[in-house]
Amino acid sequence: VQLQASGGGLVQPGGSLRLSCTTSDRTFYTYGMGWFRRPPGEERAFVATIGWDGRYIEYTESVKGRFTISRDNAKNTVYLQMNTLKPEDTAVYYCAATTLSLGSHNDMEYNHWGQGTQVTVSS
């Protein structure tokens, strides 16, 4: 599964961005999907995950109430809507696919990764 992430950019604190991750692979709907991020100088960390049918969703605590993960299996795309962005959200964001149908917060469970998209939150 080749994943292509997009939607990053520079935004002011309090602003919003929507990340997208798409693939041409027709088996997309069978995969659990996740978003991870790597802040400057830090390790990659879990952000959100969504199961194959969108019913199971999990977030890391720091983004709950601000970020929303969703997917459109007809478009082979997973989204991350990010609202009320903070400077500490600055990172390279990666989408990933796992054969675990409910998704996972553990990056070791993911087999396929997108190339990353930079999100910078700064005034």
Describe this protein's structure.
The chain is mostly beta strands and 123 residues long. The protein contains no helices and eleven strands. The protein has strands at residues 4-6, 9-11, 17-22, 32-38, 45-50, 57-59, 67-72, 77-82, 91-98, 112-113, 117-121. The strands form two sheets. Strands 2, 4, 5, 6, 9, 10 and 11 form a seven-stranded mixed sheet that branches. A four-stranded antiparallel sheet has the order 1-3-8-7, with no helix packed on it. It starts with a strand and ends with a strand.
Quickly list its features.
7-stranded mixed β-sheet, 123 residues, 4-stranded antiparallel β-sheet, 45% strand, mainly beta
Class by alpha and beta content: mainly beta
The profile of the biggest β sheet is: 7 strands, mixed
Mean pLDDT: 97
Count of individual beta strands = 11
What's the gyration radius in Å? 13 Å
State the end-to-end CA separation. 37 Å
Which residue ranges are poorly predicted, with pLDDT under 50 across at least 5 consecutive positions?
A: none
